[in-house]
Amino acid sequence: MFGAPANFPRLTRRILCSTLLILGALNTTARGDELLVFAQPVYDVMPAGIGPSMLRARDLDGDGFPDLIVPARTRDGISLVLRGVGDGHFAPWQELLVGNFSDWAELADFDGDSVEDILFGVRGDPSQLALFKGGKGGIFTDTAMRVEIGRDNSGLASGDFDGDGDRDIAATNYLGASVDILSNEGNGSFVRTARLDVARWSGGIAYPRQIEPCDVDGDKDLDLLVVLTGGGRLVLLRNQGNGVFDRSREWQVPQIGTERPGFASMALADLDADGDIDVLGSALLLAPQQKSIAFINDGSGGFAQRLVLEGTPIGYAFSVCLGDFDHDGDLDAAQGAALPGLIATLRNNGSTTTLNFVMDQLLGIGQLPRYLIAVDVDSDCDLDIVGCDAASQAVFTAINLTPQLDGCQPGFLAANVRAKLKQVPMPQMIPQLAPSDLNGDGTKSAADRALELAK
Does 31 have pLDDT greater than 70? Predict the structure, then answer.
């Protein structure tokens, strides 16, 4: 079933039925940056009761179009595999019984047979890892492998942490303020080798949500970066080279005005073209104007330099992705904001070494865009935006119509689309209510709002 769900809230339906919202004048640089233009999102509603929480994209069936792995929240413990049909829509394909809510999945060859498998993080107390073996034609089979991890898993990272040639796992314990390290025995079975504290300065209020592997210090092994949603911090766990990690280092999200922002998600890339990995995060504020935060790597894995950048004008910033949406050589971004559910396209009008975002467009998508990815869904050589809205039980796609500066031609005439765009009234903001003090730090802040949305 395609299209926006009929039971969307009235405000959301008004946003979804509106035309694209273009804010501000076109800022042109010497490199000829053009306005980012995306079509209004199209929707695929999930089977009843299944709320998608995260996405992985891969062409599983070899037809040239990316398919989706979709961890989900459902009473029946079902997650999904969706088949991409090449026009921005995704069709039901496989239902996988993981056993409970799942907020994260990793797609990799875990058992050493050169075929990619799916590893789900399954929430609970204790949580579990659930492995589904990949087979011919992109079909996955339950291996019945379940490994206990900590309390209420919310994120996974996979990589060869110990240098033995197979894919290991790091798992966040959302309610445990820790990260579990699990070593792969080479056949897709895992043994926990460490439980790492990630709340040295914030204590039990940390709530580690997202974790990503990367070599932050250039020593050729995989370190770990962690988002502390309750503590509002970026955490580094540095790998000593053998899968043993140093004690955590933490950098707090900078104060913006009178607020210390919440921090729910991040995307990793070399933002300033200096050869190391930086971090872009969504800065959730109680004030209407939201922001993005860039943590700039100093080359040794230090992130003391932090830049405050443009974000959505209303809502609560929750998700983010990076991609060169106009093929001009620098990284643009998309930020998802909750209540109302919006996607802001953020064009980088700086340079490959200097980051600066201008918001070109605001797209209505539903209620809570939990996760965003940049992927070419229609094989027309540009990056589209795909995301999921758990509250509305839908996956959505915004097709990229931006003229590509390297000569690549999108599948539609972007100039004709831009000529038809209209200014529409800014959607009225839902009244701001003070959050509860969920992290127990004695202050009702944006970090508490981020925790409410992440639940």
Answer: no
In the 3-class helix/strand/coil scheme, how is 310-322 assigned residue by residue?
ECCCCCEEEEEEE
Average pLDDT over residues 383-411: 87
Residue 181's φ and ψ, nearest 5 degrees, are: -105, 125
Those residues with Cβ within 8 angstroms of residue 118's Cβ, 6 or more apart along the chain or in another chain = 56, 69, 96, 105, 106, 107, 131, 132, 134, 140
- The residue whose two tokens read 């865009």 is 369
Neighbouring residues of 442: CB distance < 8 A, sequence distance ≥ 6: none
Percent of the chain topping pLDDT 90: 76
pLDDT reported for residue 432: 65
Structure tokens at 404: 């590509």
Average confidence (pLDDT) over 240-266 = 95
Question: Which string of b and e fits 313-341 if b means at least 16 CB within 10 Å?
Answer: bbbbbbbbbbbbbbbbebbbbbbbbbbbb
Three-class HEC string of 41-68: CEEEECCCCCEECCCEEECCCCCCCCEE
CB atoms within 10 A of CB 27: 12
**Local confidence band at 409 (pLDDT 50, 70, 90 cut-offs):** low
Q: Which of 23-27, 88-92, 421-425 has the lowest mean pLDDT?
A: 23-27
Cβ count near 255 (within 10 Å): 11
Phi-psi map region of 294: left, alpha, beta (phi>0 left; psi -120 to 50 alpha): beta
**Which of 429, 436, 428, 431 has the alpha carbon at shortest distance from 453?**
436
Show Cβ contacts of residue 337 under 8 Å, excluding neighbours closer than 6 positions. Answer: 290, 311, 312, 314, 315, 316, 317, 318, 343, 344, 369
Quote the Cα angle for 364-83-63, to 5°. Answer: 120
Q: What is the DSSP string of 328-390?
A: SSS-EEEEEEETTEEEEEEEE-S-SSS--EEEEEEEEEES-EEEEEEE-SSSSSS-EEEEEET
Nearest to 71 by CA among 385, 375, 388: 388
3-state secondary structure of 120: strand
pTM of the model: 0.89
Give the pLDDT score at 428: 54
- 152 three-state secondary structure: coil
Distance CA 129, CA 139 (A): 19
- Closest among 422, 429, 307 to 18, alpha carbons compared: 422
Which residues contact residue 76 at a Cβ distance below 8 angstroms, ignoring those fewer than 6 apart? 49, 97
Strand partners, 444: none
- pLDDT at 154 exceeding the cut of 70: yes
Q: How far apart are CA 448 and CA 436, in angstroms?
A: 7
Query: What span, in angstroms and rounded, lies between the C-alpha atoms of 291 and 309?
Result: 6
Residues paired with residue 72 on neighbouring β-strands, in sequence order: 52
